[in-house]
């Protein structure tokens, strides 16, 4: 935050109220002066101007509640007899308070504050910091001629409903969503990261086969998409006032669902969207499709398995066999006529058309649901960047530097999708549909969005932080990713392991990406 503290003196209640309602919120509320509590320790009051001008917690309870909602975590009353104040604040769900349980002298109060801030600001836990301060006070003041027992005056009153005692570093970090929201988000994120991979492994027991065909959907989520989801969530948590984002988030949700509905009803279906025993019968097939099947060599397709009387029977297991046969022919450089090759492509396009299978939904696989979830989450998180990027006002964000780091992390993680997608369009789609164009369907729009966000990233890095080296580094990473995906797909085979005989190499990628994330955030955002 640009302004980290504010000192107020000789104030009226209205000024206290206005400051507590401050839109940015505060982490610590500190009061030094005079205070008192009832004998039963239930009600406390502070003196803000003179002995006749007292203010109880109840008189600015609403303002304190607002401050707590915005991230207030600790109140320090460096004043006499503050147990009543702490008890009332605990009822407002303030995580922690530090008060003096009896009358305290000005000298001890000053010493307490000096030692406490010095210890606590070094990220010592709240309990350990107060314990250390007590030891310092005991050395100096626990003497018969001084103030015996004075070191026991500072006490911590912790709200049992709060998860843990705050630390200095924790106070200046982003405010997390309540557990009732975090838990479902975490579950959905885990399913989005590993759900499709796990489903394919359990449903088909042929994970390697499908991962090599569709790396952009099967490998990308747990390679680096989990980093993108984490980055978007952390960036969202940086905002002090999150309520204003519900409408933009609702719009993003609607657009992403609409995009998903288009995707799952489009042609060129993926093999894992069908069960292993999937069968579709076309009663009156187009004559040109029958003619195409007749022209495909028997080394690729047994036409009698597809053409039965005046029907075409499409079985997934036969589609997989045809694809495998065609790939082997291509890799072994065997002769195949252009007409036969084009006929094979037409058969694959027909066999994996949504119109063929939409009447046979019982044969849609369980993995298709996870594919829809993963696809939706990728689109949703990409669109969320358009919501997050324009809001870089330091008055609205807890830590602008961290916020920028989260957005950069998210976008760089999305860059790793590009070479995997280009691998799919230039190899998998070529072997199945005969297409080598990298720009089909929604691809052009996705690449345009990524380019726009990347350009915006570089501009903001230079404008806000003037970290030109970081901007150059992001540019180099983007250039390398595009070069490998476009011109060196064989490098993806080697480094990502798509032609590996040992799929365990795929576990190295998320570990390396996690290490890079840790190094980047340690160097750039945790300062």
Class derived from helix and strand content = alpha+beta
- Portion of residues in helices? 55-70%
- As laid out across the biggest beta sheet, the strand order is 1-5-6-7
Largest sheet: 4 strands, mixed
Please tell me how large the radius of gyration is. Answer: 32 Å
Mean pLDDT: 79
Q: Which blocks of ≥5 consecutive residues have pLDDT under 50?
A: none
Shape: elongated
| Count of runs of 4 or more consecutive helical residues | 23
Amino- and carboxy-terminal Cα gap: 12 Å
Q: How large is the share of residues in beta strands?
A: 5-15%
Query: Can you count the beta strands?
Result: 10
Can you tag this structure with a few keywords?
23 helices; 527 residues; single chain; 8% strand; elongated
Task: Tell me what the structure shows.
The chain is an alpha+beta fold. It is 58% helix and 8% strand. The chain contains 23 helices and ten strands. The strands form three sheets. Strands 1-5-6-7 form a four-stranded mixed beta sheet, with helices on both faces. A hairpin with a 2-residue loop joins strand 9 and strand 10. Helix 4 packs across helix 5, helix 10 packs parallel to helix 17 and helix 19 packs parallel to helix 21. The model has no long low-confidence stretch (mean pLDDT 79).
